[in-house]
Structures are given as structure tokens and as C-alpha cells.
Design goal:
Keywords: Cytoplasm, GTP-binding, Hydrolase, Nucleotide-binding, Ribonucleoprotein, RNA-binding, Signal recognition particle. This is Signal recognition particle protein. Its EC number is 3.6.5.4. The protein is α/β, with parallel strands linked by helices. 48% of the residues lie in helices and 13% in strands. The chain has an eight-stranded mixed sheet, sandwiched between helices. Strand 5, helix 9 and strand 6 form a beta-alpha-beta unit. Helix 2 runs antiparallel to helix 3. The chain starts with a helix and ends with a helix. It binds guanosine-5'-diphosphate. Guanosine-5'-diphosphate (GDP) binds next to helix 5. Guanosine-5'-diphosphate binds next to helix 5.
């Protein structure tokens, strides 16, 4: 991801090299090219507009500094503004004062929630936590057993309504297997009993946005009062990522974003738009199917990667 954007931006910026002074026309031309590169990378138009306006204003107003030549100064400004749209500082999980900390995962089907549950659980264990996964995706056949497999691989226990199948019958704590809200509530309770300090709730996704999905996610949120609601979004879906993020922000609300499939060859605009559009920070990034293909999201590292 970002290869072509990165190539374009480094190309545009290296054209400035060797210039002793940048005229307003140089800056305007450079900004036009950066704008095109961002739009081609699928970054959403309002985000591009704000970004370019800031670059232009800062580049034209930049004092000539002894340490940096004009081209380096523009690169520095672009870098700082990229870090800005990616959220500035790294945002850590906010832990509950009284455990367990509840983390709810929300997003479309196929976004990578179940995979993420395992990765996040595994990462939390390495941080010294004692996580537990709760299987509340009771919609998709096989989702509960998928989470159980993921949990086993990650070494994280899974609370599920009915071992193996996820449908039919009464399961653990006598919770009806068909009611994700009750399962979520019972899962948090179970974590408290077992003194697990973080609960990760995997919820159902749909292939598209629908009211029922939003309502169910809202109900689970209301019932469990999570410390974090992480919106999981496939970075490969381009502009749709922004539309989906907005719909989840309005319908459920979330406190952070997880970008998945950053290992793909999509153009990456989603990654660059979602923070600015929703106002919520990107907290984690997933870049493959293995447990370790996962990290805390660092805006500065991502900006350096984009600028080559
Ligand atoms: P869910 O429906 O949101 O729970 O999504 P899943 O966790 O089942 O993931 C959907 C598909 O995407 C699965 O085949 C995963 O292996 C795959 N997947 C998840 N995260 C990543 C990632 O970061 N990179 C790649 N390449 N594939 C991923």
C-alpha cells in the first residue's frame, strides 16, 4: 500500500531540490501535483482540500531558515501535515479504572474483526494483560467457531454462547445463543468472575450498511458500556471506507479506528482520510493474516513511509 502515492510524492518533492528560492508559482505547482497524487490515491476530497490549503499557506509563509533549503522546508511541512491528518500522536487504549476494560469491535463483515480479536488479544498478553474474547457475532454461520479457533491460536480464552456452533440451545451461563446483547453482557460478567482484565467483544458485521446491524451494535454498546469501541475497516475498500466510517460514527459511535489489510495493494486513501473525516484516531494497524502482522498505529512512522 502507498507505493504509488509514495513514488508520486517523492517525485514531486524532489523536483524542488536544487532551487535556491521557491516562488509562489513553484509552490502553487507543487501543491497542484500533491493534490493530484492524493486524489489518485483515493484520499477524500475535503481532506485533500484542507491539506493542500495548509501546505500552501505554510510554504508561502515559511521563513528562510539557515538549516534547511526551501525544498527541504516544503518536505518538512508536508511531513508534519501528513502526521497531522494521520492523527498526530499515537493514541493508546484507555484502560478502565476498575477492570475489566471492555473493548468492542465493530465494522462490516469481512473487515477483519475476528482476525483482529486474536491479534489484539495476543498483543495484550504480551503487554501483561489477561484478555478474554466474547463471541457476539451470532449472525454469520461459523463465526463463533472461527473466533474459538482464533482464540486458541492466540492463547486467549473465548466466551461463547454455545460451544462450537454458536446457534441453538442454551450455552454458558444459560444465555440464549441467539441474543448477542445478552451474550456480551454475560461475557463481561464472566471476565469479571475469572478476573480477566480486558474483554474483547467481537460483533456481527454485514456486507453492507443496514439499520439492524447498527441497532444491534448500539444495543451491545449500551449494554456493556465499553471503554473503547474500535471501528475495524478494510483499507482496501477505498472511498467506501470513509462512507462506512461515517455511518458507524453516526449509528454506533466509536472511540478509535483499526485499519486492516494494509498489506494490500490498494491506493491507501482510506488510511489518510478516516481520521480527518471521523475525528477519531487510528489506533492499530493490521497488515496480514498472521498473529504478528499487527501493531500500534504510529502517525509519524506512516508519514515517513509515505514520503519514502
Ligand atoms: P470479520 O468478518 O470482520 O470478522 O473478518 P475476518 O476476521 O473473518 O476477516 C476476513 C478475511 O480477511 C479473512 O480471510 C482474514 O484472514 C482476512 N484478513 C483479516 N485481516 C487481514 C489483514 O490485515 N491482511 C490480509 N491480507 N488479510 C486479512
Amino acid at each position: 500500500m502507498f507505493d504509488s502515492l509514495s513514488d508520486r510524492l517523492t517525485g514531486v518533492l524532489s523536483d524542488l531540490r536544487g532551487k535556491g528560492r521557491l516562488s509562489d508559482a513553484d509552490i502553487d505547482r507543487t501543491c497542484r501535483e500533491i493534490r493530484l497524487a492524493l486524489l489518485e490515491a483515493d484520499v477524500s476530497l475535503p481532506v485533500v482540500r484542507t491539506f493542500i490549503a495548509k501546505i500552501k499557506e505554510r510554504a508561502k509563509g515559511a521563513e528562510v531558515s539557515g538549516a534547511l533549503n526551501p525544498a527541504q522546508q516544503v518536505v518538512k511541512i508536508v511531513n508534519e501535515e501528513l502526521i497531522g491528518i494521520l492523527g498526530g500522536e499515537t493514541r493508546r487504549i484507555s484502560l478502565a479504572k476498575t477492570p475489566p476494560t471492555v473493548i468492542m469491535l465493530a465494522g462490516l463483515q469481512g473487515a477483519g474483526k475476528t482476525t483482529l480479536a486474536g491479534k489484539l488479544g495476543n498483543w495484550l498478553i504480551k503487554q501483561g494483560h489477561t484478555p478474554m474474547l466474547v463471541a457476539c457475532d451470532l449472525q454469520r454461520p461459523g463465526a463463533v467457531s472461527q473466533l474459538q479457533i482464533v482464540g486458541e491460536r492466540a492463547g486467549v480464552p473465548v466466551f461463547a454462547p454455545h460451544a462450537g456452533t454458536g446457534v441453538g440451545g442454551e450455552g454458558a451461563l444459560g444465555v440464549s445463543a441467539g441474543d448477542p446483547v445478552a451474550v456480551a453482557r454475560a461475557g463481561v460478567e464472566q471476565a469479571r468472575t475469572e478476573q480477566r482484565d480486558v474483554v474483547i467483544i467481537d460483533t456481527a458485521g454485514r456486507l453492507g450498511l443496514d439499520d439492524e446491524l447498527m441497532q444491534q451494535a448500539s444495543d451491545i454498546r449500551a449494554a456493556t458500556d465499553p471503554d473503547e469501541v474500535l471501528f475495524v475497516v478494510d483499507a482496501m475498500i477505498g472511498q467506501d471506507a470513509v462512507t462506512t466510517a461515517q455511518a458507524f460514527a453516526d449509528g454506533v459511535g466509536f472511540t478509535g479506528v483499526v485499519l486492516t489489510k494494509l498489506d494490500g495493494d490498494a491506493r491507501g486513501g482510506a488510511a489518510l482520510s478516516v481520521r480527518e473525516v471521523t475525528g477519531q484516531p487510528i489506533m492499530f494497524a493490521s497488515s496480514g493474516e498472521k498473529l504478528d502482522d499487527f501493531d500500534v498505529f504510529h502517525p509519524d512512522r506512516m508519514a515517513s513511509r509515505i514520503l519514502g
